[in-house]
Amino acid sequence: MLTVVLLFVAAVSALSDEDLEPGQEVQILKSLALKFRTAENDFTQASPNSAYFPFVKSRKENERIKRLNSSTVNSDVYMKKITEQLKTWRGFEEIDSAVALTYANLMFETFYNLSPDLRASFLQSSMSADDLQKLPLSWQYLLPHQFYDDLGLDGAGFAELVNSSPGNTAMLYKIAMVLRDEAVDMRDAFMNNLNLPNQYREDMGYILGYRWGIESEADSNYDYTMSTLLHLPSDVVMGINNATFDNLNIADKLEDKSMWGLASPQSKVAWFTKFEGRKGWREVAGTPHHMVRHGHLLSGAPLDKLRELKGNKEIETSLLAEVLDNTEMNPLRVQELWEALADVDREKSFIAQASNLDVSQILSHYDTPNIIHTPHQHHVMLETAWFSEDKINVPWVNSLAIAFSYMNNQEFVSWTYKELQGLGRFLAILSPAEIDLIPAIDFNSTMLGMILSSTLSLPQLNSIYLKYLDNNYLVADATLNPILLSALPSATILSANPPFIWSQDKTNLLVASAKYSPGQMHSLHEISKPGHWASANLSAILSTHPQCMSDVNPREFRVKLDYVVSAIYTAGPDKFHVIATKVQKLPRHLLMAWLEEAHTRPGSKRLQGEWWNSDVLLDRVTSTSIPDSGTINPFPSHPMAAQFNRFTSANRSMLPSLALAGMSCHCINLVETPDTMEVLALYRYHSESQGDVAAMPSSSRRCWAKKVRQFLHLKALLFNVTVNSESELLSLLTTADIKTVGGEIFLTWGGPALASITHPEVMHEVLMAVGHTRPHLYLRNGVTYTCMKIMANALLDTMMREEGGINFRVLAHVHNLVPYTDTRVLKAGPADIRLYVSSVLSPTCKAVCLMKKERELVRQMILQSYGPPSTWLPLDLVELGDLLVVMARSDLAAVNPTSLRMASAQLASSTLFASSLTEIRSQSSPLLYHEACGAWLGGKDGRQSDEAVAMFKQWKMLANFIVVGNFLQVEVLLKKIDVPKPRSGGNEFRRKRQAQTLTDGIDYKSIYTIVMNDMKAKFDAKELSDTQKMEATRVITETQKMLGDSSFAVLGLEREGKTQSEVLAVLAEYKEAGNMSEAQNVQVQMLAVDTQVRMIQELVQVLNLSAEDLNLTEDELGTILARHTFVLRSPGAVSSTTLTNRTLPVDEETSEGTDRESVADELLNNDAETTSNPGSIESKNAPEATPSEDPNENSNNAKLTTDATPASPGTTALPSPGTDATPSPDITAPPSPNTISSDKSSPTSTTTASTASSAVANAASSSTSSSAATITTSAPLNPLIEEENDFSELLKNTELTDYIIFDAYEPASDYFTTLPSMDSLTLSCDVIIAAGSSSSSISSSDIARMSTNEVLNCLSTLGHLPWPPSATKSIWKAVKEKVDSLQDSTMLPIKRDEMLQLGTLLPAIAAYDSELLDMGRK
Fold this sequence. Notes:
Blueprint: H1 7-15, H2 24-38, H3 55-64, H4 70-73, H5 76-89, H6 97-112, H7 116-123, H8 129-134, H9 137-142, H10 146-149, H11 155-163, H12 169-178, H13 184-192, H14 201-212, H15 226-229, H16 234-239, H17 242-247, H18 250-253, H19 257-260, H20 265-279, H21 282-285, H22 288-294, H23 303-307, H24 317-326, H25 331-338, H26 343-353, H27 359-367, H28 379-386, H29 396-406, H30 417-423, H31 432-437, H32 445-451, H33 458-470, H34 473-476, H35 490-494, H36 502-512, H37 518-528, H38 535-544, H39 554-559, H40 561-571, H41 576-582, H42 588-600, H43 614-617, H44 641-647, H45 665-669, H46 676-688, H47 698-718, H48 726-730, H49 735-741, H50 743-746, H51 751-755, H52 760-771, H53 785-803, H54 808-814, H55 830-839, H56 852-866, H57 874-880, H58 889-893, H59 897-910, E1 916-917, E2 927-928, H60 929-937, H61 946-975, H62 981-984, H63 988-994, H64 1004-1020, H65 1026-1051, H66 1060-1073, H67 1078-1102, H68 1114-1122, H69 1136-1143, H70 1158-1164, H71 1167-1172, E3 1179-1180, E4 1211-1212, H72 1256-1267, H73 1278-1283, H74 1287-1293, H75 1325-1331, H76 1340-1344, ...
Antiparallel strand pairs: 1-2, 3-4
């Protein structure tokens, strides 16, 4: 490679100058080399560079620490092999001495331009702070730390060095490293005076945590602001010792609510966990005082902690409401806290929180009668909040729940002005086909102002536009609504009299063009061409929609660049940051043309050669470009703040810094090598600001890698380090270099090269950079799967050696490489793994592409930390996110339906697997993320390999899982709300079919909710008499006791005097441990139904409720009152065939091919087990018993008899512990319908909840605490009543311990007992919309099962899903067969309106049914 010692002589002759004394060059080089050797490095363990250089010392260190494969890494043969491979496959050519000297020439050229006094002070090592700031930034960055030691700068002075260019992250890291060993007050002053862009706070936290070591600064005294501490790595947060926690006054600093809002969701989890561990739950939310101070920390709390706040008498719910309104938190946490609010607080917070609530809570809110809901009182505020963005960012089912309340019960064809006005901007929930049905007469300009929003899609806008045209409103109106400009057909845009005036409407037209089809965009380009280059027009284009320039060719752009720059200056300083962001959307070839033209302009090159003048390229402020002192920078901490200052100068620039994202290899190679890091830092800012799945162009990435190599060769020359291999060259990297370069570029070297870097600390830091790289970049980099495993295990080995095993810190450091390691990570504790998932991995880090072996490894990690899937809460699912792709089908099938339902909206919105990725190796066009996974995993075989196919199936399984969850969400809404007539037509079949799943044809859960709501409302209104309170108390407490006894009997346990709370604790333990058999699970669910029934039977009389109050007929109420409950029998007395009819109803349409009868079959085939195993049960649902003819027969049956009641219809068989039969001394028949006098009241608050649906704690504790059925006993009731003497507390205790209101609105369907399979569902368009991109996993058979009306309404949605190319043919065929207009010859060919809807299916139509397309230009 390069032997630098021989270059000193050459440097003297090549760089001699009349202004440089002979030998000064050598003096500079010697000084730099000496200071480098004695300077401490900037790695985790600070050591002098002399401990690792020359490289023989690094090799000895590798042997001493027993580095993984140290003998191979230290081998000259192996290093030469790596070097040759990189030369062959990456084009990493050897850099000879002559080329290296040109890099030094650039350094010394800038030194020559300095004043003689400054050169002298530098040579004498006597520079002042002012002298340092006069040095070129490249010199400041490359100087060893000793040059900064005697400057006399304080922390604020060092901050000023960085603040001069906030986007220069290289300098930020450099100065932060210089200060690592300085006094705390200096570092504190540095941080407090730093203008740190938010984009770089996480990286700065990395430096503070892993270099400044603040987690163990016991002598700290109130240093560091919370804005700094909040961005510490999670493992550093958890490692803060108690002394440091107290000395840093973290408890006080965490009171800063505004700073808390800057923290990431992962950081919030870490800080809550740390704070609660140090201070306890009480100091978070134990008292009103602590709630005011630290209530916002609840945004990092687990759900079980949040549930403790419900019913807490010490905390006023208004305080909780204030926390909700002022703290951004995950919707699932909002939902838990919402349940703790009083009705009055819910009403006040509803507008702000409606988008975060579960659909059941929205339904409950509108069902609460003691809240006065005036018609449409929320309408304007909600539609303003929800429909102001380009897409609806609210869960679809929430939008439907609100919109249905505004939709009149009239068919679309009968709608008038009144119906349209009532729906307003919630019109966005209607499909184009539904909009087409509405009469056109009322679509005038006034109405358009009420219904139009930027949320509407192009097909929806097109339908509205056609309505508008039907009545010639366009002729009568002077102007067209700006939003409707998106719907203008191409022909209208090009017409002689379009409905707009370019000079007046250009900005609105450009905004509207964001939704344009290619044809519309072409038309816009045509009409804008005549005045394309006018400054006013260009200013509007560049600040609004630069893509309008996409058809300009590079040559024309170069010629007209002055017009572009002039347009930016015309827009003025107020638009600078907007345009700087917007121009990144210009096609890359135009940005490239911008740079090429700017490079030809005078002053853009160095005096010698073609090198870029970095002052010009980066738009630096210089002595000839002084900023306008009268223009204040509105964002002084913005990464482009320095460029803004340059922009205000009277000496105009060509603004090449705005176009850095277009750098070609030629342009990158011309960057001044000493300025490599500064230019690269700004380039990365532009590149990474384009979204979560943005990536560098592969050609640019490789060329940046080559440029970094040039920079390292320059360092080798300056510091007199002999380099003979690529492994040694990379050893010259510092932490500041590594953080600036980033893992995406380092991956260009490949796993073997990076894992064999000679310097062990550099290797560690580089691999950490790779580990912090988002997984989607692994697929786009040319790095192989084997490379990933090599790097992952090398880093894991290093961390385990440092930590002495596997812990949270190890997992956090290995980061995104953890899935590529080995089974050693399974030795981590469950709490550590869980914290790693929740506080380290962001959503973009969870979309992993893994082979079968590694998928199983991650699956085991998840099961080890989160427990059995049946116990997962909704937040667990959201935390796992795309990591769920590693789970087995049986794992996902075991998830609680309510948990999935509640998590489904977030799972749908956060998944990345259907995102489009560019820059995929060997692919000329973008691929969907899951397809790119297959191409990468398949290696040479690509997407056809077994691993690729297996990964595709895993994605499809996960996506189907998300679809099922959203199906359940929609089911809750459609079953528990009066769906307006226009929307109910497509659901009639499903509603009729699923009604068969109700027990006795009655939805007991809904009736129970009405009864409990009525009791709660009357109690709150003080309308219950003492007698009613006593009777209600008796009903609830007796039922709780009986349910507890019965549940214990099912489990084969003895109650042995346990209190009710102890019984619940035992049942919860059984649930969590997974100790319930399937049969026991079914039996507990039956007990839950019995509980609801008996509570209804008793409380209807106590509250004097009629059938009308319960929305029942007299016959239905009679059926309920006649039903027998809690009748204990011998297990063998009832057939299990009828058990299925009672508890596991089967849909006639969907039972075939499913396993819904598996529980009944198991019971049926195990009669022998039933009599010997106390946990096995059978039940029978015989014809209903009729009410007693004698109304008094059962009226006094409020006491228990000692004899068992004979077998009666509709009983539940319960085995006694340890016996074959279950004798019971406490059995009753249904009560008679006699009543206790009470004033009537309307149905009320939904504070109480219903029974759980599937899990033991849900079923048992919910039923035990809220569903309770009454059993009358002759035993004294006083002890029980005394135990629950506070009726208010009793009401609170009737609420569900796990899901509160969340399953109260779930239909009585087996869908909410066990997750249904996809092929058992009939999807609606609402489900497909709600599931988002995951709906691209549905099959043609899923579409075939949809109704014709649903498919017609869903054309636009189906036509804009990211379908895998392999699926489009079958999907199109299924759609075509369901939509009559696509088959009727009189309706063909497909016109523009339908083509706008069919979108992503058009390629399949063109390939297989091209004759159906209307290719006319109109």
